Amino acid sequence: MSDEQPIRILFVEDVPQDAELAEHALSKESLVFISTCVETREGFLAALTTFQPDLIVSDYSMPQFDGLQALRLSLENDAARPFIVLTGSLNEETAVACIKAGATDYVLKDRLARLPFAVKEALEQRQTRQAREAAEQALRESREKYRRLFAEMMTGAALHEMVCDADGRVVDYITLEVNHAFESMLNVTSEQIVGVKASAVLPPAELAHWLEIFGLVALTGKSARYEMYSPLNRKYFEGSAYCPAPGQFAVTFADVTERKRAEDALRQRVTELELLYENGVALRQLLSPREIGQKIIDLLAQKLAWHHTTVRLYHPHGETLELLAFDQTGLEDEAERRAVEERFKTLIARPGQGLSGWAVQHGQIIRSGDLAHDPRYVETGPDLQSGLYVPMKVGERVIGVISVEDQRPAAFSEADERLTATLAAQAASALENARLFDEIRQRLTEMEALHTISAALRAAPSHAEMLPVIVHLSFNVLKAAGAALVMRESATGEAIVVFGQGVWDDRTGTRLPPEGGIGGYVFASGRTYLSHDVEHDSRLAVADRWADLPGIAAAPLITQEQIVGALIVGRATDFSGEEGRLLAAIADIAANALQRAEVLKTLEQRVADRTRELAAANERLQELDRLKSKFVSDVSHELRTPVTSLSLYVDLLEHGKPEKHSYYVAQLRQQTDRLRTMINEILDLARLERDQHEVSLTPIDLNSIVEHVVATQQAASTAAGLQLTCEVAEQMPLVLAQPEQLSRAVTNVVANAVKYTRSGTVQVKTEITDGRVGISVTDTGIGIAPEDVPHLFERFYRGKQVAQSAIPGTGLGLAIVKEIVEAHGGTVEVESQLDVGSTFRLWLPTM
């Protein structure tokens, strides 16, 4: 027992003094114990339960209860508990009887000095016995666990013993034990093989092969791996052999038949992938969606003979599916081919229609061997039973679908699905490249169109000559079926179609009511309007002049804060948001040109009596024209670099190295984003100039604007490793401002500070000085050269140090800030020192 737990000793004694002497003898040997003493059978039984002794010391002979009775009761209660007989006199026969009955030891009362040693020895024997019993139990459990593991393991296992001749050479081996998996895999029973020599069941050549492998394992102890084929059940096995004891070897093996078959399938897959690689290279060189679709059709026609295959492109704008290419066996002439093509176009034209439309709508592959019982199926031909529909996806975005159908039931395998899915991924990449190329080409076309319109209107000498130019160029740029320019007559307020083209050419001179319909909405709201569903558009009057075309776009012509007209175009297909913005830009250019023409006409009519006034106005107009020319020149100069880059990478995409196409596309996307950002900021500047007299000012809390901007820029500053702080002045007076524009100005300044600060801090503060409120943005950035400061707020201007860095920008952000602040009656100040930092202050008047 440990020193921390005292021994619990039960004394069975009718003489208390003898028990006390025994306790004294134990204490002298420093034994730590607690004890109790009983002298009757009832007391003994009660103590076994309540006291639960670790050891019993009992007198042999007592009047009412003797030691042998106590021994029997103790053994019944706990056979392992030590029991020591303590008596005054004990002959040898009685002592032997006590030991045989189960007593641990006996001690004479006149030799109590031996009692502590007897107690210690008894307890040590008990601990030793308990440890041995635990070890034996663990061994039994371990053996049983091994037996269960051996018998139930999923791999085949067997134990063998080598048979050697008189010279110690291995000549045979005997099977000692096999598990259930061994019997199942090799189709034998343990009765057939256990105890049997291998020479009795194996041909000599095969026996020699295995003796060479297993003999080395059994005699040297080195493990070995092996493979074997069982012709009996046509299965392949792979296993390992090891030496559990000298002269023995054990084997474990597993069925690898499926893996072998998978390897064969893999070799077939490699062949498919080589074919797909070759066609992937070919697809990446194509930039026409129809050519890409036809290439897919050609590949599938090479590989498999199916009834028909179609490739459809998804257009999310109009929610339509365009048939790019198709192939159907057995078509005899071109007329029959056109009829089949028309049927395919008509039956599956939108997402959700048929299984092809379902695959597009849900982005999931469908492989069906029983089309007739699928409620989603739309019959595209007679007696078709099987279909495979694979969406083409870029990331998670579905851009089209490859559909294959056949007359045989369950015609498509997993390999067919895998091949078509891989091809769909290649096609999706190629179609996305084609889309990006077309988008870039469209952006270039739009920029050229705006430049052409500006140049044509500048060349037109009069108001009347400008009208057909505006309509004609809008008609061509937007690929319209009809275009019209509507102007408002100041005297009557009626709208007049001053020029029409295309299907609307007969409407020139038509008078329209000032309210109702698309024209009325544009005149009333001053906003560009796109009608995506003319038939159900609530803004269209029943007799609207423009309702004969499904897609309508209209943009207002605004001069001197007044809506003087509207430019309306229509066609059979829908207009996108980008096309709406292009039409708005054309309308802005047209309005400015018409205003200029009107002013020139007025100047000519009043030159006699208002020479001085006309001269001043003419000077202002010339300045406006100079600024416009400078603006156009600046725009042309700034656009030249991305346009040149676009042209270069378009050329590389067509003629460059195929392996670098992804890089070319990335550069095209980057330059497109740069163009888009520049155009949006140019349009923002134009809109600010146009709307600067129409700004609706409301009282606002400047602190709330600043705190919101700082919160939105925290993520960017954290990503750049900067500390962005905000300190607002208390009791700030309200200012009259347009919240969105003022937020835009503050955002531009804070974003610039974050962009041009490599490390350190950006601090934003609000302050009150001399009846003005201010916003200061101080950074520890790269600073601004003194010669650059006077030009900071010029459009497209970027300082030398910034221009030489790799930080992207358009040079319009601070120009927009200046426009917004001055429109609010405020000023902008800047202080800067190279490599130290800059401070921008926006001052606004209070209410």
Write up this protein.
It is a single chain. The strands form six sheets. Strands 18-17-16-21-20-19 form a six-stranded antiparallel β-sheet, with helices on both faces. It has a five-stranded parallel β-sheet with strand order 2-1-3-4-5, with helices on both faces. It has a five-stranded antiparallel β-sheet with strand order 7-6-10-9-8, sandwiched between helices. By secondary structure, the chain is α+β, with helices and mostly antiparallel strands. It is 47% helix and 22% strand. β16 and β17 form a beta hairpin. The two termini are 93 Å apart. It contains 22 helices and 28 strands. The mean pLDDT is 82.
List the main descriptive attributes of the protein structure presented here:
847 residues; alpha+beta; 6-stranded antiparallel sheet; 5-stranded parallel sheet; 22 helices; 28 strands; elongated
Cα distance spanning the termini = 93 Å
Mean pLDDT: 82
Helix content: 40-55%
Radius of gyration: 49 Å
Sheet bearing the most strands, described?
A: 6 strands, antiparallel
Shape: elongated
Q: Provide the low-confidence segments as ranges.
A: none
Strand residue content? 15-25%
Number of helices: 22
* Strand elements, count: 28
Instruction: Report the structural category.
Output: alpha+beta
Oligomer: single chain
Side by side, the strands of the main sheet go 18-17-16-21-20-19
